[in-house]
Specification:
This protein has 1 helix and 33 strands. It is mainly β.
């Protein structure tokens, strides 16, 4: 009986796992601790007033997503609206949930901290440019900082409690994506063609030239950072040696990488504007497989167990085999999909440019097997 209770406890814990930040964790790995069923079933749809380009997140049993109708929505896992917050412009940046607060930037340059349960405004910070990327968090001198970039070329570190600017870091162009954070390092790409590496105090540790601007977000794995750029390249950078270690893509005949990559440490997967999703070897950048859709692959993919979740601008949400890139299942929304999936609470959440959020049952907990002697 005690083994059954333990098993149920593990399953319930894993089912409750969240996806509180764009790409699932502060490293922006794009990896979900889940196994995907063969045929996910639609649980509900939720319709907003305009297009959705904001990637959804899930925390504490609530789905958060922004819309071009200027509202940030909190949706229960049964599809009922809990609250919405109205700004003066579109929410394209993915929200970020930390504790009892949801943080989100809008195209009007405002960055909001809202009560996650009620949507009440706690504080806001005004930047001088649109905010299009997700925030992230880091601890510095015992204080939790919210890190977010803006089209005013600045990366800001704000007090999570008050919104006070603790430090800011200026680049030479827009910051469109989200910062990835791990081991006390803040790594982000800019439209200045640099992969920036900062300390938690906002001091530059490295600026690695990638030859073309980075519109999306990097992902981190140990001392490696992976990112795509508008020079048609997917790159791997060594953060200790401060240099690019491999590049994948055809600079002349290829297309930009607008999606953020996902990595499980073995593979790196990213979408391109040549309609393809590429899986390459994380160690050397050699292609493992590619999948061709009928539209740009702007949405960032998610690795979940032996599957890859891959929405396309052709309007189809594809689930592919991680091993070979073969289609296992697909769902046609009839609308462009540029937002990335979220996985949590047993659900797979996608959002399309028709303004609709789709929630599918189909993410089972990935229980780790323990090795040991049989008694």
């Amino acid at each position: 009986m005690r083994y059954l209770i333990l098993l149920l406890s593990i399953i319930l814990t894993l089912q409750a796992q969240d996806w509180p930040v764009f790409r699932g964790d502060t490293r922006l790995s794009g990896v979900a601790n889940a196994q995907i069923v063969k045929e996910p079933k639609l649980r509900f749809t939720f319709t907003t007033g305009k297009k959705i380009a904001s990637s959804p997140v899930i925390a504490n049993g609530v789905i958060y997503v922004g819309s071009a109708d200027k509202q940030l929505y909190a949706i229960a896992t049964n599809g009922k609206k809990l609250w919405s917050f109205l700004s003066s412009n579109a929410f394209e940046a993915p929200p970020f949930v930390l504790g009892e607060t949801v943080y989100a930037g809008s195209a009007d340059g405002e960055f909001y901290a809202l009560n996650a349960k009620t949507g009440a405004l706690q504080w806001k910070h005004t930047t001088d440019g649109a905010i299009m990327g997700s925030a992230n968090s880091i601890t510095h001198n015992g204080e939790t900082l919210i890190i977010v970039g803006s089209y005013d070329n600045m990366l800001y570190a704000l007090s999570a409690k008050t919104g006070r600017v603790v430090w800011s870091y200026e680049t030479d162009n827009y910051i469109n994506g989200a910062p990835a954070i791990d081991n006390g390092r803040i790594v982000f790409g800019g439209c200045d063609g640099m992969l920036h590496v900062l300390t938690s105090a906002g001091k530059s540790n490295a600026a690695i030239a990638v030859e073309s601007y980075i519109a999306a977000s990097p992902c981190l794995d140990g001392n490696r950072a992976y990112a795509g750029n508008y020079g048609n390249k997917l790159i791997a950078a060594d953060l200790v040696k401060k240099k690019i270690v491999w590049q994948f893509g055809d600079e002349k005949d290829g297309a930009p990488f607008f999606s953020s990559p996902a990595t499980d440490g073995t593979s790196v997967i990213a979408g391109s504007r040549d309609n393809a999703l590429y899986c390459v070897n994380a160690a050397n950048g050699k292609k493992t497989w590619s999948f061709i859709s009928r539209g740009n692959m702007d949405a960032s993919p998610v690795i979940a167990g032996d599957a890859v979740l891959a929405p396309s601008m052709d309007g189809t949400f594809y689930i592919l085999s991680l091993a070979k890139g073969a289609v296992r299942w697909s769902y046609d929304t009839g609308s462009h999909i540029s937002a990335s999936p979220a996985v949590g609470e047993g659900l797979i959440i996608i959002a399309a440019e028709n303004g609709i959020v789709y929630a599918f049952d189909g993410a089972l907990p990935a229980v780790q097997k323990k090795q040991g002697k049989t008694k």
